[in-house]
Amino acid sequence: MDNPYQRLVVVSNRLPIVVSQEDGDWQIKPGSGGLVTALAPVLHEQRGLWIGWPGCSDEAPLDELFSRFSREQQYQLHGVTLTTEEVEKYYLGFSNETLWPLFHDLLGHCHFNQENWLCYGTVNRRFAEAIAEVSTKDDFIWIHDYQLALVGSHLRDLGIRQSLAFFLHIPFPSPDLLRRLPWKTELLRGLLDYDLIGFQTLRDRRNFLNSVLTMVPETEVLSRHRYYTLLRYRDRTLKVGHFPISIDFAQFDAAARSPEVTDAAWYLHEHLGGRQLVLGIDRLDYTKGIPERFLAFERALEKYPEMRKNLSLIQVVVPSRTDVAEYQQLKEELDGLAGRINGRFAEPGWMPLHYLYRSLDPVQLFAYYRTSEIALVTPLRDGMNLVAKEYCACSVERKGVLILSEFAGAADQLGKGALLVNPYDIEGTADAIFQAYSMPEEERLRRMTLLRAKVRRNNVHRWVGWFLAETHPHGEPHG
Asked: CA separation (Å) from 208 to 32, 176, 205, 428, 467?
């Protein structure tokens, strides 16, 4: 990390850990996910600090567990305590029932509640106080995602004057959508208190800039560059850039080639009759477009009867927010659609849709990625969508075809090798499924070679280095 700071301080809603109790003994283990994979080496190198909510009950001996984690991982943790009411109003309420659907262009799912907004501000203030308590003026403070958008503003109120950075992992909405948020001006002004703001795509960056220039008129554009824009706000200069996040390509590629995954992939394909496999893997969420995907698959079977008995869709849905009525209704809708499709088209020895409502262990996940001829990644809106990149990294034979929503951030990077679709266009997506099914091997190899090269080059380590290199507002762009 080539900058004047001595230590990296990462701040996110959740700490990168899993705390559990086994036979009366408390255990702490590193969490999984792209952000942890990307940032842990930097934190380890600098003896850095990660601040967040532990996500466990008060009875866990956190001081002891954090000390054990620090000795093993060579970086520190600091917990921010949340009450049950705060989890309900700040996290489940404002973050996930207001900002999440609004930022994903799904206004009909939004709930606007003043108490939730006030609680959001209170919790963001508490995160800021925790940062101020344990950080020093030589630290570089990097805050992540929509749950903590106002932390920078509260840090300024607390007298913190050093450089602050923020990265939004989800999309940023158009000004027309953002106008619906009653607290839009407060949110935008809060974001303008950072020195570096990162978005996933150029579209997100433009949406933010257009919103700010429309709703915070005292903001001025100083200069525009390919990867960033310099703004002037309240006698401060800040940088707004786009930095598409990625995965550890080498890790996924190596895992997909391992003997365990090779055997599991072979067994999976043989067990399903050796026919072509279409894969969908998603968390249960209305932004992922799973009902539309099922309808497109059903239409493809209607329109192209030659695919029947020669192709199956495997849809893995990872349970999420199962106590929320809206998600329960989505689960019921998927259950009904899956039953209808199989009822219409199944024949002896062939089931068109294998619908799995559960998590996968790593070997299973890599095996599904490696063995599936087609990946169907069709969110209605997504900040990036790393499933698309993981599929490419695991397609080691280079025979897979990626069908990708044009509304996923990943489409900006992967559009030349993927088949892009509009997930609302059931007919067009059905046609893309048939195009992928009937694609010659030579074209499959060409497309997947291109996709794998793109993901390999723009890996998650490059993303971290690129972002950290931009920490000075007047620095030159990288990448």
From this structure: 30, 11, 5, 31, 18
What residues make up the domain containing 218?
A: 7-245+461-469
What pLDDT score does 4 carry?
53
What residues of the chain score a pLDDT lower than 70?
1-5, 472-479
Q: What does the pLDDT look like over 157-215, one tens digit per residue?
A: 999 999 999 999 999 999 999 999 999 999 999 999 999 999 999 999 999 999 999 99
Looking at residue 101, what is its pLDDT?
A: 97
pTM, 2 dp:
0.94
Number of domains in the chain: 2
Cα 449 to Cα 254, 280, 455, 459, distances in angstroms? 16, 21, 10, 16
- Active-site pick, 109, 169, 354, 461: 169
- pLDDT value for 42: 85
Q: For 350, which DSSP code?
A: B
Determine the 3-state secondary structure of 233 from DSSP.
Answer: strand
Q: Are residues 400 and 417 in the same domain?
A: yes
Q: What is the 3-state secondary structure (H, E, C) of 278-347?
A: EEEEEECCHHHCHHHHHHHHHHHHHHCHHHCCCEEEEEEEECCCCCCHHHHHHHHHHHHHHHHHHHHHCE
Q: Quick one: three-class SS letters along 436-479?
A: HHCCCHHHHHHHHHHHHHHHHHCCHHHHHHHHHHCCCCCCCCCC
Residues 241 and 274 occupy one common structural domain = no
169 three-state secondary structure: coil
Residues 142, 50: Cα–Cα separation, whole Å: 10
Is there a catalytic annotation at residue 169?
yes
Q: Which two tokens stand for residue 324?
A: 């929320």
Q: 230, 223 in Cβ contact below 8 A?
A: yes
In a domain, 478, yes or no: no
Inter-residue contact 4 to 39 (CB < 8 Å) = no
CATH number where 119 lies: 3.40.50.2000
What is d(CA 173, CA 203) in angstroms, rounded to the nearest whole number? 9
Write down how long the chain is: 479
Is 382 part of the annotated catalytic residue set? Answer: yes
- Same domain? For 223 and 351 the reply is no
Alpha carbon distance 132, 449 (integer Å): 47
One domain, residues 239 and 303: no
The closest of 159, 236, 170 to 386, measured between CA atoms, is: 170
236 plus 316 within the same structural domain: no
d(CA 372, CA 391) in angstroms, rounded, equals: 9
Residue among 145, 204, 282, 382 flagged as catalytic: 382
Helix (H) or strand (E) holding 374: strand 374-377
